[in-house]
Design brief:
The complex is a heterodimer of chains A (114) and B (114). By secondary structure, chain A is mainly β. In chain A, the strands form three sheets. In chain A, strands 2, 5, 6, 10, 11 and 12 form a six-stranded mixed β-sheet that branches. A four-stranded antiparallel β-sheet of chain A has the order 3-9-8-7, with no helix packed on it. A two-stranded antiparallel ribbon of chain A has the order 1-4. Chain B is 0% helix and 50% strand. Chain B is built from no helices and eleven strands. In chain B, strands 2, 4, 5, 6, 9, 10 and 11 form a seven-stranded mixed β-sheet that branches. Chain B is globular. Classes of the chains: A mainly beta (114), B mainly beta (114).
Chain lengths: 114, 114
């Protein structure tokens, strides 16, 4: 079965520092991978997605992620954190053969302090 | 910009009562989904719906649950006899196409079962 593991339920960074949120997946076939962000009291917003094209994917708000098949990873990064980046981030995988259902990781809450 | 809407934003009900959660997907989308997120836990897939029938459902989606597209715009999730453990945030999502297209999420309905 497909699964997603997000290392670190809470990550805290200083404003201007590098953001690194980790995601590892298990899949028997090449998956599609997604990062979603959830701001307080809001729904899930797509940050970026990997769909077997370029391995380095750029998303909104300056985020990017790199698909590494050898490491089964899809870590999310941003060079310089902003206060507005404070939110919960979810990595998700879309299994092959399903009608696009998403399997989510447990989420990582990002705090940004001055 | 088109968006998925959900009503109500918060529903409080007594155990054993029936609830209907409503969603209006993006108008040209063909695939519809329900997910739930129990407080402090990961987002879980419940069901996907296409062409007026269920495409896939999870183990969570038992006989207490049903979905319906009663008209051309609404997509509903009914829980027949609510239990305490049904308390969660329920998210509706829709996507345009089958091929792992992006899912757009609504803001969610927080269901509280007393």
């Amino acid at each position: 079965a497909q699964s997603v593991t997000q290392l670190g339920s809470h990550v805290s960074v200083s404003e201007g520092a590098l953001v690194l949120l980790r995601c590892n997946y298990s899949s028997s076939v090449p998956p599609y991978l997604f990062w979603y962000v959830q701001y307080p009291n809001q729904g899930l917003q797509l940050l970026l997605k990997y769909t077997s094209a370029a391995t380095l994917v750029k998303g909104i708000n300056g985020f990017e992620a790199e698909f590494k098949k050898s490491e089964t990873s899809f870590h999310l990064t941003k060079p310089s954190a902003h206060m507005s980046d404070a939110a919960e981030y979810f990595c998700a995988v879309s299994p092959s053969g399903g009608y696009n259902k998403l399997i989510f990781g447990a989420g990582t809450r990002l705090a940004v302090h001055p | 910009e088109p968006e998925v809407t959900q009503t109500p934003s918060h529903q409080v009900t007594q155990m054993g009562q029936e609830v209907i959660l409503r969603c209006v997907p993006i108008s040209n989308h063909l695939y519809f989904y329900w997910y739930r997120q129990i407080l402090g836990q990961k987002v879980e897939f419940l069901v996907s719906f296409y062409n007026n029938e269920i495409s896939e459902k999870s183990e969570i989606f038992d006989d207490q649950f049903s979905v319906e597209r009663p008209d051309g715009s609404n997509f509903t999730l009914k829980i027949r006899s609510t239990k305490l453990e049904d308390s969660a945030m329920y998210f509706c999502a829709s996507s345009e196409g089958r091929n792992r297209g992006e899912q757009f999420f609504g803001p969610g309905t927080r269901l509280t079962v007393l």
